[in-house]
Design a protein that fits this description.
The complex is a heterodimer of chains A (530) and B (230). Chain A is an alpha/beta fold and 530 residues long. Chain A is 44% helix and 10% strand. Chain A has 3 domains: 125 residues, no CATH class; 252 residues, NagB/RpiA/CoA transferase-like (Rossmann fold, 3-Layer(aba) Sandwich), CATH 3.40.50; 75 residues, no CATH class. The radius of gyration of chain B is 23 Å and the shape is globular. The chains are: A alpha/beta (530), B alpha/beta (230). Strand 9 of chain A pairs antiparallel with strand 9 of chain B, so a sheet runs across the interface.
Chain lengths: 530, 230
């Protein structure tokens, strides 16, 4: 059990906190291959608060086995390929400073990017929020007469719920990344930034393909190669006929207008190259100042994310190239809460994130609870600092009533995420800062604050030796409450606020003062020299 | 209500504590940005020269690790090597697509059973036709040995992006003097023409989406043959 003495949110659970885990969820048992997470209206805020959701996902032994295996594999791969780079720390320093520079110069760089994309025949759109971005993409697809668009895996379009919006408008969005396809066919939600179907094992994936793909071979086995070939056959026809593609972008180079997509399967290249029209949705923080800066990030990203020296394919394009690739290119620059994050001098470092997911793979909390417990398309340590801030304007960090305010507590503050972050985001410090703000927000609500009252009482006790001694002796009376392991797991109120989420070590039989007094009252009886 | 562009930009300025939306006499908007110095202590180049034996050996090692096939051939043996690989594709007739600027000498060893189809931005082959050819043959712009990466930049000897993507087999000719050791060396070379459409290829297409188990060959070419010349 965690012993993190940084304050515990008092009421992060929903009223059904103590209900048995099976009663929650989408009504399907956790073993079912299909949709344990219903599609949310808000991709940045779904389901129960983390403490409740985590308790539920922890019941799923299959999920924990799948995640335990996958994260172990990826951690070892990453460590090996990072270890062979002699200047890794210098690259991290450069990457961190470059992103800091991007934030400082964001207004200028955004306008520079816009100018360069436009000069090369692209069209730049600006979107204040998810609804505006969705509307822009829908209008472009509709103008092209497309009832189907092919998609490259993209966190930005996940975040705005683009697929659901397009579906409501009668346009089918086909995910072409293998893991995204698995998630989409299963009517599931992603649980990892890079490998969204990491919570599924090969047998579950085979079952999903057989049930939902439509053209999967009936004798499909669960060998990963066969599963990948089934996806290839399923998607090839769509690639060859698609008129409109939608992508995200890993980087946008301000000084040239060049955009980059980093991928593995070739589905990205298919989408970026074959359709006549390409729409790219990019968060405004994804910029790098100059083309040469790619030399830093194209070293940091692949080794941190898939644990490869380089990912199989990286595409870079600048506006429209006559005779090669799409003849029409649209870039949608997305705010959707990013400027709220930027306004926070501590929290803005969360915008440095290049979505490698290394922090997820090393996080002891993520490894056990999985991505769905975070209730956001951004799970894990980075999600725990990014999600509350992105949703700040609707209460994300204000505490008490918002489920996202619980996310900064979804960490042991072990610091592993900071160690692996390729752009050195100090996630633990931001977590602590967000926790403090959540507590402060609650305090400013007025009324009796039990936490402040307890601190005041402790201060009164500890400021007087006599009082402290008497209080210590009184506390030894609680020794009997501890179980065989010397731990109190369930205490009566008000201490129950603590023991509901954490164990409390039982007080010893005697205080140190009592022991000292006893040892020193008669030195002759103390048993000689020590 | 102001338009989205104006509003997003003014939100960004406000967030940075640099409010103001007018243009100052200096041409900047609002307050000047804070100056951030970027430390460039990382290696700008490797210890081995481009095309040196060490660099070539490393490139081969990395490519093989990605399950690409590599042949090191002398310039004079290249046509025979190309012909040999094409013969392996199929026992009967074979269709190979080439970009219009390909070195014709590379095709000199091909037999009558090989149909060479030329593609150019001016007369592009449709994607559905590219889907039926057996292989594509291209040159490359630069290769990076540390990462096992080959970069195509769409020039006439490399062709449109689609031709090196849709066919199932990619035969790629890389000259030894095009091989540099580090990523920064490759990026700085490419920075001379940043507007060209670039495709960085590191082995055949692959996925690790199922239990992080790597499977080579998904949507892009499932087989990559690299002919390292010189």
């Amino acid at each position: 059990m965690s012993r993190t003495f940084l304050g515990l949110p008092r009421r992060l659970s929903r009223p059904d906190d103590d209900a048995p885990p099976a009663a929650a969820g989408a009504g399907e048992p956790p073993e079912s291959p299909f949709g344990p997470v219903p599609h949310p209206q808000t991709p940045l805020r779904w389901g129960d608060a983390f403490p409740v959701a985590a308790r539920q996902t922890l019941q799923n032994a299959q999920l924990r086995r799948n995640l335990g295996h996958a994260t172990q594999v990826i951690r070892a791969k990453r460590a090996a390929v990072v270890g062979e780079v002699p200047d890794w720390e210098a690259l991290r320093d450069a990457g961190s400073a470059l992103k800091e520079r991007v934030m400082a110069e964001l207004p200028e760089l955004l306008q520079q990017l816009e100018e360069n994309v436009t000069a090369r025949g692209g069209v730049v759109h600006w979107a204040r929020d998810a609804a505006e971005a969705n509307r822009i993409v829908t209008e472009i697809a509709r103008a092209k007469g497309a009832d189907e668009v092919v998609k490259v895996k993209s966190m930005a379009t996940q975040e705005i719920g683009l697929n659901e919006h397009l579906a409501a408008e009668g346009i089918a969005a086909v995910e072409t990344d293998l893991a995204e396809l698995i998630v989409q066919l299963a009517d599931d939600m992603p649980s990892h930034i890079l490998v969204p179907a990491i919570h599924r094992n090969r047998t579950e994936i085979r079952d999903i393909f057989l049930a939902r793909m439509g053209d999967a071979p009936p004798d499909l086995s669960d060998v990963p190669r066969e599963l990948a070939m089934a996806a290839r056959a399923h998607l090839r026809r769509k690639f060859l006929s698609a008129k409109v593609a939608v992508s995200g972008a890993n980087f946008g180079v301000a000084s040239t207008g060049t955009l980059a997509v980093v991928e593995s399967e070739g589905n990205g290249r298919m989408c970026l190259t074959l359709p006549e029209t390409l729409v790219t949705v990019m968060g405004i923080e994804k910029l790098v100042p100059d083309f040469e800066d790619l030399e830093v990030f194209l070293q940091l990203l692949p080794r941190s994310s898939t644990g490869e020296r380089m990912n199989p394919y990286t595409s870079l394009w600048t506006g429209v190239t006559p005779g090669d690739g799409p003849s029409e290119f649209h870039l949608v620059l997305l705010d959707n809460g990013r400027t709220d994050v930027l306004a926070d001098e501590v929290g803005r470092a969360a915008l440095h994130c290049i979505r490698c997911s290394a922090c997820l793979n090393v996080c002891p909390v993520y490894e056990r609870v999985g991505g769905h417990a975070y209730g956001s398309v951004y799970p894990g340590p980075i999600g725990a600092i990014l999600t509350p801030q992105l949703t700040a304007s609707t209460g994300g960090v204000s505490g008490h009533d918002d489920v996202n305010a619980a996310l900064p507590y979804a960490s042991t503050l072990c610091g592993a995420c900071y160690d692996v972050c390729p752009v050195k985001i100090d996630i633990p410090s931001i977590l602590v800062d967000l926790r403090a703000r959540e507590v402060d927000a609650d305090r400013s609500r007025g009324g009796v604050d039990p936490w402040a009252a307890a601190m005041k009482a402790a201060s009164w006790l500890m400021s007087d030796g006599g009082r402290f001694g008497r209080a210590g002796r009184a506390a030894t009376l609680a020794h009997g409450l501890g179980g065989r392991d010397g731990v109190i797991s369930a205490a009566p109120p008000p201490v129950s606020a603590w023991t509901r989420s954490r164990d409390l070590p039982a007080p010893p039989r005697q205080t140190f003062r009592q022991w000292w007094a006893k040892e020193h009252e008669s030195p002759a009886d103390a048993g000689g020299e020590r | 209500m102001s338009d989205a562009r104006t509003e997003v930009l003014s939100r960004v300025r406000a967030a940075l504590g640099r409010p103001g939306s007018g243009t100052t006499p200096a041409g900047t908007v609002g307050a000047a940005p804070r100056d951030v110095v970027v430390p460039r202590g990382y290696r700008a180049a490797g210890e081995h020269a481009a095309g040196s034996p060490e660099v070539l050996e490393q490139l081969v090692d990395r490519l093989v690790d990605y399950r690409a096939h590599v042949q090191q051939v002398a310039e004079t043996d290249l046509p025979a090597a190309v012909a040999g690989l094409v013969r392996e594709l199929s026992a009967g007739r074979v269709a190979v697509v080439v970009p219009h600027g390909i070195d014709r000498g590379w095709l000199a060893g091909l037999g009558d059973e090989v149909e060479v189809r030329e593609d150019s931005p001016g007369s592009p082959l449709p994607a559905t036709e590219l889907d039926t050819v057996d292989a594509v043959l291209t040159a490359a712009r630069v290769a990076c040995s540390e990462t096992g990466t080959i970069v195509l930049d769409g020039e006439p000897d490399q062709g449109r992006r689609a031709i090196s993507l849709v066919p199932d087999v990619h035969l790629c000719v890389v000259r030894a003097d095009q091989v540099v050791q580090t990523v920064p060396e490759a990026v700085r070379l490419l920075a001379a023409h940043p507007g060209r459409p670039l495709t960085w290829v590191s082995g055949p297409s692959a996925t690790s989406d199922i239990e992080l188990d790597r499977v080579e060959g998904v949507h892009g070419p499932r087989t990559l043959h690299v002919l390292l010349v010189g």
